[in-house]
Amino acid sequence: MFTEETTFSAESYFASQPPPPTLQHDVERVREFIKRHNNEGRSVVLVTSGGTTVPLELNVVRFLDNFSAGTRGATSAEYFLKAGYAVIFMHRQFSLQPFSRHYSHSTNPFLDFLEIESPADGSKTPAITVTPSKREDLLEVLSMYKDVHNRGTLHTLTFVTVDDYLWLLRAVSQEMSILGRRAMFYLAAAVSDFFLPRQRMSEHKIQSEKGRLQIEMDQVPKILKPLVDEWTKEGYIVSFKLETDDNLLIPKARAALERYGHQVVIGNDLHRRKYEVVFISRKEKTSESTTTADMNSGDFQEYWLRIAIPDTSGGVSPHKVKEIEEDIVAELGKRHASWISRA
Ligand code: PMT
Predict the structure, then answer these.
(1) Higher-confidence position of 37 and 292
(2) Which residues 6+ apart lie within 8 Å of 66 measured at CB?
(3) Region (Disordered): which ranges (predicted)?
C-alpha cells in the first residue's frame, strides 16, 4: 500500500507506479530483435543514453531534467556496431543518436552541407547536392548508417521520464537474459536519483499564486541490485559513475561494485569526461589489461584511459577527431570476450 513514508524498493516501485502505455509494444519488438541475433550467435549490448525527466504534474507542464546530451551513449553505440555487436539503443527522446549525431551540433549544422543547383534550362525542379568539401565525411557516415540499417543490427527505444526508463530497463534486461553471457549492459544514461510518485503529483499545472513551491521527492530505487541479482544473472554489466569532486570518484565507484556485485564501473569527471575515464573492476588473478593498467592494492584494479584534448581550432573535420568512446568500447570488447570464454 502507498504511504507518505514509503521508501521504494524496486519491488514496491513497480507495484505502485504504472508502466508507460507503449511498454508492451516496445517489448514485443525488442524480443524479436534479441531472438534474431541470439539465433545468429551475435552478442547484444544494451546502451542507455541521455537524461531522464521527473514530471511535477500529471498533465505535465513542468519537469526536472539534467545535463546529459547523450553524447557518450550515441558515440559508443556506433563503436559497438563497428565491433560487430547488435545494439539496443535506449535513449532519451531528442537526445543524440548514432550517425545523425554527427550533424546535430550547432557547430556542424546539416543544412550548411547542402547546395541548391538551379537547372540550366530554368524549367525543372532545382537539384540538391552536397557541398563538395563535405562529401567525403558525409559519405563515410551515410555508408555506415546504411550498412547498419541493411543488416538490422540497431534497435532504438525511446524514454522521456525516469518511470519510462525504469520500466523499459527491467523489461529489456529480462528479455536479454536468453543471451546469457553474450549480453552486455552499458548504462551511460544519467538517471534521476529522485522522483515524485504519481500518487503525490498534482493533476493540473501547479499554480503560482500559492507562492513558494516546496516539493518533497522520493529516492528512485537502486535498480542495479535487481538487474544483477534477478533480471540478468549472466549479463556483463558496465555502469558509469559521474562526479564533480575528484576525491569521490574512485571510492564511490568501488562502493558501487561492492554493493551491486557487477563487472565494471567506468568513472568520469563532469568536465574531463571526453578525454579521461577510469575503469574500476575487481582484481583478476592475471590482469586483463596488460598495457597501461594501473594496479592498486586491495580488491580492485583501476585502468585509466586518456586521449589528448583535440585541437579543433584549425578546421579539422569533426569526423577525424579522436573519440574516447572508441577506446572504451575496444577495452570492453576484450573484457566481454574474456567473460564469455570463462562461462
Ligand atoms: O550524455 P553525455 O553528455 O555524454 O554524458 C555522459 C554521462 C556523464 C552522463 C555518462 O558518462 C555517465 O557518467 N552516466 C552515469 C551518471 C551517474 O553518475 O549515474 P548514477 O550514479 O546516478 O548511476 C550509476 C549507474 O547506474 C549509471 O550507470 C546509471 O545509468 C545507472 N542507474 C542509476 C540509477 C537508476 N535508477 N538506474 C540506473 O540504471
Answers:
(1) 37
(2) 51, 52, 190, 192
(3) 1-21
Is 287's pLDDT higher than 70?
no
From ligand 1's centre to the CA of 241, what distance in Å?
6
Does the beta carbon of 69 sit less than 6 angstroms from any atom of ligand 1? yes
pTM above the 0.85 mark? yes
DSSP three-state, residue 29: helix
| Torsion angle, alpha carbons of 274, 243, 51, 254, to 10 | 100
Residue with CA closest to ligand 1 atom 37: 223
Q: What is the pLDDT of residues 91-129, one digit of tens each?
A: 999 999 999 999 876 778 888 889 998 887 767 788 899
Name the pairing type of β-strands 276-282 and 294-295.
unpaired
Distance CA(134)–CA(102), nearest Å, equals: 12
How do residues 233-269 score in pLDDT, each as one tens digit?
Answer: 999 999 999 999 999 999 999 999 999 999 999 999 9
* Matching residue, cell 556496431: 81
**Cα(317)–Cα(3) distance, integer angstroms:** 56
Q: In this structure, which topology does domain 1-98+151-234 adopt according to CATH?
A: Rossmann fold (3.40.50)
Which region, left, alpha or beta, applies to residue 270 given φ > 0 means left and ψ of -120 to 50 means alpha? alpha
- Please give the pLDDT value at position 297: 47
Burial string for 169-199 (b: 16+ CB within 10 Å, else e) reads: bbbbbebbeebebbbbbbbbbbbbeebbbee
Helix (H) or strand (E) holding 78: helix 71-82
Residue 191 Cα, ligand 1 centroid: separation in angstroms?
6
Q: Would you say the CB of residue 191 lies under 6 angstroms from ligand 1?
A: yes
Q: What is the DSSP string of 221-282?
A: P-THHHIIIII-SS-EEEEEEEESSHHHHHHHHHHHHHHH--SEEEEEETTTTTTEEEEEEE
Furthest C-alpha separation in the chain:
77
The ranges assigned to domains in the chain are 1-98+151-234, 243-343
